[in-house]
């Protein structure tokens, strides 16, 4: 294999890591608060806002139900507005992030669901404010579940990013399609797939390791 | 220290409404351990949760340490809650925090500086006997140890009042004993007022000064613990005590019991006696004065705080006019007599 090819593979790998990294980070920053909101605004919860809760729930479900490939196309104008272009890795980050936010939010909400209501009650009996309950009880107690959710998100983003790559987003998916499919070079295809597999394994192991460290059972 | 006036609580509305507490008054004097006992679903948890407004009462007012709580909300309520500790049946410790950090939590919530928190937590861990477990996580502790951590945590904000919601119900009898001893020690050494709810008479007997009996949302009986055990005023109270003392006639006898007296049968009675009656040789006097024979089937004596309580199941053997006379005799000597039935005289 030529060194030019190796360079291409290396660049594609870094592009994928960049897309996945940035979209994971932003979707975590926005998705975790949204997940917390979905949980605490429920009826009878610490910041009960049933109407707001329903609106957030519907919006989140819409975000989750649109297939990624359609979302990517549908939000092209929005992507252009944000990054100035609709192709390339930066352009791919926008739909990846939009798709991941509701995904993260639901996983976080699920993790919070696992917390015994007794803990919230105990905190209330100590005179904790809702914000204190979120920062000192809910988030630390659900940390393991939240990390599990973020790991699932990152892994999902790896495969989504390959899809985004196929329609001009760059990265390993793009490389695999261009060389492996269009030019019929099975070696490149296999290498990109192998790198994706290793990447997913790596993220999963890292996630599992972090979850174990938060687990005090 | 704690005064509930006319407090009621209804869950839900319309057809689904459940009146968990009917309007009731309750007063817990400063420094006492007050036990509320009742059957499952009687409204005990609702009652105790109303005291710190975890549950907002539908009506009535609640005052703790002279402060009216029902008018408070938000920060003012949170401030008031710093002076009311609470422990729970299932401990409710944070699994993500060490023992030390769990006890620190209420102080963090109050904004106490780190250095001061360290100074205040250490003696609390010592008080509950867990100094060596400071850096362990709850999952590494036994149930009794978890409840000790919860007690230390509840005391961290130096409350005037401790609420205990079935605090020993998830523990084995021996551990229960040690937790009750700890609560008693705290009551004595810190002068803490304790309101506890339980369905176990053992808890009431061991540490409570006063007891309230709650049934279907009403406080049906209230007394000093010694009085309650020796002279309950309600049927439910008597059932609790009988159940607690486990003094039931033997099954073989129950099968032979007849509700109505026959020509050749004699009564089986359950006698409850307390105070002076315990030390008076009543049974031998009864046999002599009424000229009957007394066959004791079962007997039990319990000491409850400074009182002694005796229970006995006995067969009164003699002609029916004599046995009736014997029952009158016992009643005039302040024994509580319950005729369980009649058995045929053996041939
Ligand atoms: N959140 C709630 N919503 C509706 N009904 C409730 C609620 N909490 C309690 N109840 C009802 O109120 C009544 C009293 O319940 P409570 O939990 O106070 O009883 P308890 O004496 O503590 O019983 P247990 O010994 O089983 O804990 C019960 O009929 C119960 O079903
Ligand atoms: Mg209860």
TrEMBL record, chain A:
Its subcellular locations are:
Cell membrane
Gene3D superfamilies in alphabetical order: MetI-like
The main location is membrane
Q: Provide this UniProt record's keywords sorted from A to Z.
A: Cell membrane, Membrane, Transmembrane, Transmembrane helix, Transport
Question: Would you say which domain of life the source belongs to?
Answer: Bacteria
Residue ranges constituting the ABC transmembrane type-1 domain according to the UniProt record: 13-207
CDD domains, sorted: TM_PBP2
- Can you tell me where the transmembrane regions are? 20-40, 52-76, 82-105, 142-167, 187-207
Pfam families per record: BPD_transp_1
Q: Per the UniProt entry, what is one GO biological process?
A: D-methionine transmembrane transport
SUPFAM superfamilies recorded: MetI-like
Recorded family membership: Belongs to the binding-protein-dependent transport system permease family. CysTW subfamily.
What is the protein's name according to its record? D-methionine transport system permease protein
UniProt organism field: Franzmannia pantelleriensis
- Phylogenetic placement of the source organism: Bacteria, Pseudomonadati, Pseudomonadota, Gammaproteobacteria, Oceanospirillales
UniProtKB/TrEMBL annotation, chain B:
One GO BP annotation is: amino acid transport
Gene Ontology MF term list: ATP binding; ATP hydrolysis activity
Q: Which InterPro entries match?
A: AAA+_ATPase (IPR003593), ABC_transporter-like_ATP-bd (IPR003439), ABC_transporter-like_CS (IPR017871), ACT-like_dom_sf (IPR045865), MetN_ABC (IPR041701), MetN_ABC_transporter-like (IPR050086), NIL_domain (IPR018449), P-loop_NTPase (IPR027417)
Pfam families, per this entry?
Answer: ABC_tran, NIL
Chief localisation class: membrane
Keywords, comma-separated and alphabetical:
Amino-acid transport, ATP-binding, Cell membrane, Membrane, Nucleotide-binding, Translocase, Transport
Q: How does it sit in the membrane?
A: Peripheral membrane protein
- GO CC aspect terms: plasma membrane
In this chain the ABC transporter domain maps to: 2-241
Looking up CDD domains in the UniProt record yields:
ABC_MetN_methionine_transporter
Which superkingdom does the taxonomy of this entry point to? Answer: Bacteria
Localisation per UniProt entry: Cell inner membrane
Q: Which family does it belong to?
A: Belongs to the ABC transporter superfamily.
Return the PANTHER family for the record.
AMINO ACID IMPORT ATP-BINDING PROTEIN, METHIONINE IMPORT ATP-BINDING PROTEIN METN
Q: What does this protein do?
A: Part of the ABC transporter FtsEX involved in cellular division. Important for assembly or stability of the septal ring.
- Tell me the protein's name: Cell division ATP-binding protein FtsE
Question: Species name for this entry?
Answer: Franzmannia pantelleriensis
């Amino acid at each position: 294999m030529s060194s030019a090819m190796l360079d291409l593979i290396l660049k594609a790998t870094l592009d994928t890591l960049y897309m996945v990294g940035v979209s994971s980070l932003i979707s975590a920053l926005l998705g975790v608060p949204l997940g917390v909101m979905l949980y605490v605004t429920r009826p009878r919860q610490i910041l009960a806002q049933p109407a707001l809760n329903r609106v957030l729930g519907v919006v989140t479900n819409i975000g989750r139900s649109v297939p990624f490939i359609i979302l990517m196309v549908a939000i092209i104008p929005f992507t252009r507005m944000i990054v100035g272009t609709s192709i390339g890795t930066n352009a791919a980050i926008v739909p990846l992030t939009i798709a991941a936010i509701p995904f993260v939010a639901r996983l976080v909400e699920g993790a919070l669901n696992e917390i015994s209501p007794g803990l919230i009650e105990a905190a209330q009996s100590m005179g904790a404010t809702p914000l204190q309950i979120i920062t000192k009880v809910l988030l630390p107690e659900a940390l393991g579940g939240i990390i599990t959710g973020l790991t699932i998100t990152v892994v999902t983003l790896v495969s989504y990013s390959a899809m985004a790559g196929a329609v001009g987003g760059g990265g390993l998916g793009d490389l695999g399609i261009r060389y492996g499919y269009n030019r019929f070079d099975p070696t490149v295809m296999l290498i990109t797939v192998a790198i994706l597999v290793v990447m997913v394994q790596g993220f999963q192991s890292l996630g599992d390791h972090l979850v174990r460290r938060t687990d005090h059972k | 220290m704690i005064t509930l006036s006319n407090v009621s609580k209804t869950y839900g509305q319309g057809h689904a409404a459940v009146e968990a507490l009917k309007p009731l008054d309750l007063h817990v004097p400063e420094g006492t351990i007050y036990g509320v006992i009742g059957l499952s679903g009687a409204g005990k948890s609702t009652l105790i949760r109303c005291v710190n407004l975890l549950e907002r009462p539908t009506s009535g007012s609640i005052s703790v340490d002279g402060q009216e709580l029902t008018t408070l909300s938000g920060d003012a309520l949170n401030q008031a809650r710093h002076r009311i500790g609470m422990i729970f049946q299932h401990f409710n410790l944070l699994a993500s925090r060490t023992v030390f950090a769990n006890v620190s939590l209420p102080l963090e919530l109050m904004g106490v500086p780190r250095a001061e928190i360290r100074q205040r937590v250490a003696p609390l861990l010592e008080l509950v006997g867990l100094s060596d477990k400071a850096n362990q996580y709850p999952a590494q502790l036994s149930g009794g140890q978890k409840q000790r951590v919860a007690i230390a945590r509840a005391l961290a904000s130096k409350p005037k009042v401790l609420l205990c919601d079935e605090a020993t119900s998830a523990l084995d009898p021996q551990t229960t004993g040690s937790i009750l001893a700890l609560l008693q020690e705290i009551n004595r050494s810190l002068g803490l007022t304790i309101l506890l709810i339980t369905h176990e008479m053992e808890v009431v007997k061991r540490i409570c000064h006063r007891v309230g009996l709650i049934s279907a949302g009403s406080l049906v009986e209230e007394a000093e613990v010694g009085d309650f055990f020796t002279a309950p005023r309600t049927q439910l109270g008597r059932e609790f005590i009988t159940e607690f003392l486990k003094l039931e006639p033997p099954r073989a006898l129950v099968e032979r019991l007849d509700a109505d007296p026959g020509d050749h049968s004699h009564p089986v009675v359950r006698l409850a006696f307390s105070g002076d009656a315990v030390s008076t040789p009543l049974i031998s006097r009864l046999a002599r004065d009424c000229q009957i024979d007394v066959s004791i089937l079962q007997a039990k004596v319990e000491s409850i705080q400074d009182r002694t309580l005796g229970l006995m199941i006995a067969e009164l053997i003699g002609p029916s006019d004599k046995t009736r006379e014997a029952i009158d005799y016992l009643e005039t000597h302040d024994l509580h007599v319950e005729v369980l039935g009649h058995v045929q005289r053996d041939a």
